[in-house]
Amino acid sequence: MTKIASNLQIDSARLWDTIHETAKFGATPKGGVRRLTLGPEDKQVRDWFRARCEAAGLEVHVDALGSMFGLRKGRDMSKAPIGLGSHLDTQPTGGKYDGVLGTLAALEVVRTLNDAGIETETPICICNWTNEEGSRFAPAMMASAAYVGDFTTDDILSRKDAEGVTVAQALDSIGYRGATPVGTQKFSGFVELHIEQGPILEAENKTIGVVDSGQGVLWYDGKITGFESHAGSTPMPLRRDALATLSEIVLAMEAIARKHGPKAVGTVGEAVIANPSRNVIPGEIAFTVDCRSADAAIMDVLDKDLRAAIAEIASRRKVEVQFDLIWRKPPTHFDPKLVDAVENAAKMLGLSHRRITSGAGHDACNLNTVMPAAMVFVPCKDGISHNELEDATQADCAAGANVLMHTVLALAGVAS
Ligand code: GLV
Ligand code: MN
Ligand code: MN
């Protein structure tokens, strides 16, 4: 097998141009991107991605949940490909890099190998996973979760957005319900490049995060039922106020997460008052909770303490609180051999690096349950993500893409 020199580099300007070209699909006035999964802007970027994959000679197929796979043949087609990629959907007020960097860097790796005339021993396959973000349909990372068997395809197809549109209808409306059954595309390993989405690499002046673990996630749907009544004439002790109840729940959740700080975080990201009116005491509120920890035992404690706090608040305030766990993703421990491969690539390229735990969830975390997987992080400005201000430098994006490429080459081998 031929050894590839560290001077094989991706085309930094070409990668940067593709990031900014695709940022037009769903561009927001504040410089971010709003590209909700399976919406019209997602179709635009998917069509763009498919066309560029085909132009790069990849065989593209789409699975029954809309995940896209672009296969680059290797010398030994009896081997399952090495997968690389991420996602192209964004948060409602998202940035240009979350998911996009990893997907477009995967395309850039293919373009670089094509330009250099390099055939890999094992094929490689670049991926765009459907609905990583989880903001239109829950849970997040639903396509890779179905891929690994955490959910059936039919279950995911039946999930509804806030308007009652199902995943199946949304896929059909943009023409991305593919023919390939979920799970058909096999991989012998998966590597995902992503911005860190946190402040550590920047603070420590490191270019590469060698991701060895990821936080587990607890997602809940909550509903508070109190009693609507007149804001002027209802004395304070007689109120059954759903919003005041939620306020207590939010603060209790914050205190519970802080008790385990820095090993836990907790967020109420959505709260919707039914029939809101300035002079009506809120009677019904739907809300969500997202709690995370890299420690499974702490996740159990968070769950127990949260339920106890909510039960106490509900009974004291004489309201009903329904609180359902809709998703539990255990912490991730990435494959040690692949983590070493990422670290070796960073070392070979002379890039500063450190091991790191991912605070965010990623498709690689799901995939790691059925195949060896690992991730590469690069810094993002001020650690900000899930925000239109999300930013990263061209040099760091290119460095991450080079680590991705050399990790994949080490895994796939070079045929000639
Ligand atoms: C995905 O962005 C998540 O971590 O929720
Ligand atoms: Mn992401
Ligand atoms: Mn995200």
Number of helical segments?
12
Uncertain runs with pLDDT below 50, 5 residues or more?
none
The CATH superfamily label of the largest domain reads Zn peptidases
Number of strands: 16
On the 0 to 100 scale, the average pLDDT is 97
Q: Do you know the CATH topology of the largest domain?
A: Aminopeptidase
Count of structural domains = 2
How helix-rich are the residues, as a percent range?
25-40%
**Per DSSP, what share of the residues sits in E-state strands of 2 or more residues?**
15-25%
- Which architecture of the largest domain does the CATH hierarchy give at level 2? 3-Layer(aba) Sandwich
The N- and C-terminal alpha carbons lie at a distance of: 7 Å
What's the SSE blueprint?
Blueprint: H1 12-22, H2 40-55, E1 59-62, E2 68-72, E3 82-86, H3 100-116, E4 124-128, H4 142-147, H5 153-157, H6 167-174, E5 189-195, H7 200-203, E6 208-214, E7 216-225, E8 229-230, H8 242-259, E9 265-267, E10 271-273, E11 280-281, E12 284-293, H9 296-317, E13 320-329, E14 332-333, H10 336-348, E15 353-358, H11 363-367, E16 373-378, H12 394-412
Parallel strand pairs: 3-4, 3-5, 5-16, 6-15
Antiparallel strand pairs: 1-2, 2-4, 6-14, 6-16, 7-12, 7-13, 8-11, 9-12, 10-12
Helix pairs in contact: 1-3, 1-12, 3-12, 8-9, 10-12
The structure holds glyoxylic acid and manganese (II) ion (2 copies).
Glyoxylic acid (GLV) binds near residues 134, 140 and 360.
Can you offer a commentary on this structure?
It is a single chain. The protein starts with 11 loop residues before the first helix and ends with a helix. The chain has two domains: 2-215 and 331-412, Aminopeptidase (3-Layer(aba) Sandwich), CATH 3.40.630.10; 216-329, Alpha-Beta Plaits, CATH 3.30.70.360. Helices cover 35% and strands 21% of the residues. Helix 1 (12-22) packs across helix 12 (394-412). The longest helix has 22 residues, at 296-317. The strands form three sheets. Strands 1, 2, 3, 4, 5, 6, 14, 15 and 16 form a nine-stranded mixed β-sheet that branches. It contains twelve helices and 16 strands. The chain has helices at 12-22, 40-55, 100-116, 142-147, 153-157, 167-174, 200-203, 242-259, 296-317, 336-348, 363-367, 394-412; strands spanning 59-62, 68-72, 82-86, 124-128, 189-195, 208-214, 216-225, 229-230, 265-267, 271-273, 280-281, 284-293, 320-329, 332-333, 353-358, 373-378. The mean pLDDT is 97. With 416 residues, it is an alpha+beta fold. Strand 3 (82-86), helix 3 and strand 4 form a beta-alpha-beta unit. The structure holds glyoxylic acid and manganese (II) ion (2 copies). The site of glyoxylic acid has 5 residues, from loops. Residues 91, 98, 133, 360, 386 line the site of one manganese (II) ion. Keywords: Hydrolase. This is N-carbamoyl-L-amino-acid hydrolase. InterPro entries: Amidase_Cbmase, Bact_exopeptidase_dim_dom, Peptidase_M20, Peptidase_M20_dimer.
